[in-house]
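Fold sample X.
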Amino acid sequence: MAKAKTGAGKKGEIRTSPYSSKIIKAGALLSDTKTLLSAWNPSLSVSDNLRRVRRQNLLGKTSRSRAEDILAIFRQRYLAEETVARALATLVKRQCNGNTLERIFYFHAVRADSLLRDVVIELLLPQWSRGAMDVDVREIDSALRKWVEDGKTSGAWSDYTIRRVTLGVLSTLRDFGVLQGAAKKRIAPAYLSLQAFSYIAFYLKQHQPSGSKLLDLDDWKLFFLPREGVERIFLEAHQHGLLEYHVAGSVTRLTFPASTLEEYANVLTQ
């Protein structure tokens, strides 16, 4: 079976896995994610936190199976690295700007879901580059059918599943702010706040120490950012004191005023 790129492993590396249809049950889950993170206890392990969420029904779900579906997605997106969970909890508890939070949630969610990632980078980005903003559901559906035929999915998908996954992907990307519109969707104007950009840069630098290579990572394509756009925002973040960015010839030096992601989350919310 052909494999597709997906999100970070224990050390943030890109791993491979087949496309999943979990998006049918998940979506962006922005409200549930904020609820979970606002109750997150950084002194407890991931497992202990999740047990507490279940025991106290902090999600307020009437169905245990629905709560478990959400916790499974939450674990996949945000809990592969405990430092990420603690940093996100800090951002939520310190009432970080909503747009910034959504962009950061989107970043982690898409890195953890190869299907969402490839829809953005392989389908929406080329379309955006051509200046075509309207999203044709039939084109997304057709691409998914091709990926199923290519063996990129976790088993064969029926026409019904493909249709539901297509709609699930589009509604999820809308809720994350990548798309806009109800019945007819368009690619939304690209936006990435300085705080969200800086958080993502810090996270990526933990896994790619080379400043010059970091500029060329595919992760920036999730925000439709070309290399020159990444460089421009680095300079802007430098001017605002969120990081230090210096370029001398072929050498790029990038440093941050914190040593851990959780510490940096505190810096960003001061």
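Fold sample Y, listed below.
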Amino acid sequence: MIPLEEIRQISVVSPSKIVMLVIDGLGGLPDAKTGKTELETARTPYLDHLAKKGVCGLIDPVSPGITPGSGPGHLALFGYDPLKFIVGRGVLEALGIGFELTRSDVAARGNFCTVNDEGLITDRRAGRITTDKCAELCTLLGQIKLEGVELFVLPVKEHRFLLALRGDGLAAEVSDTDPQQTGVAPNMALSTEPQAKHTAHIVNTFINEASEILARHHPANMTLLRGFSKLPDIPSMPEIYKLTPAAIASYPMYKGLAKLVGMKIFNADSGINEELNILAHYYGEHDFFYIHVKEADSAGEDGDFKRKVRVIEQVDYALPQLLNLKPEVIIVTGDHSTPALLKGHSWHPVPVLLRSQWCRPDNVKEFSESDCISGGLGRLSTTDIMPLAMANALKLTKFGA
């Protein structure tokens, strides 16, 4: 990828607008009975129309064969090398709920989970408890006292919560306690660098006390922690691309990602129709919009093939609201694949389409994995999407003499 500093040198302000629609976990694997993925199964006339008029391909969020987290997947979509700009999940959760981290704080993303009588994990998400229940449990855990450390336990959404530690001598080099599988016990927090031994001890103290408090709160009777991190230094999108970017999302983590790179945040709680209404309302105020659709990823993680198909169809059905605005550049893709067959993120490349007045259309007839593999964009790094979007919006000048 071209370095961000070089992009900064050649980016220019123009009135054209870019809309990036991210269907989280978009990519899938074929159903055994039909031989079609979720995207190929879904009825998507508007996405297919965009694909016919645009140029398509497949993207690798990090590198071929590497399964990305949502953080690296999104940073790559925004043009940041995920191997250089490493942002912990804890920081993203904190930013997403508006918690003001200091530079010395350590944050982690927490899950309430279910363990059986043997202490083995049976559900990493505690049945996706309600956010109200999560808030109740966070209040209980927030009463834990840790020597020399100020503790914050705050609800995020459903089973997710934020753990933040504030005090002297804290370090983020602590391993995850979430093994990201069922049938095993939660891990202990371990220091991955000598300076984090004290922090790991504090984390394990918190976990032990939390487990005693939660023992009577089945299905949320244990905690899992991952993504221990501190605030990073990262250049903003307005600085690099000279854009006035905005994000429209519901889940805190994605709002946190957008805030981290300098986007204005608009909250949407009731799905794609509300998101597109917000887009229309604020369309004149920004020249870049990132719209995030979470539900496809959730369905994939739950192994619910049919539900993921329905989510994709709902997005397609709402697309005329976006098309009527006539943005100069439309990008539709995902941050990673989440096949229902695997019930989790996967390494498979993600379909992408780009529509603009200036693109060179290919022979793709529908927006699907099997068609995009022969699209004009080929298979490329996700970090190449932003330069392509900028070029098609006539927001990049010539490089070099």
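Sample Y note: The chain has 14 helices and 13 strands.
Also: Residues 127 and 274 are 26 Å apart (CA to CA).
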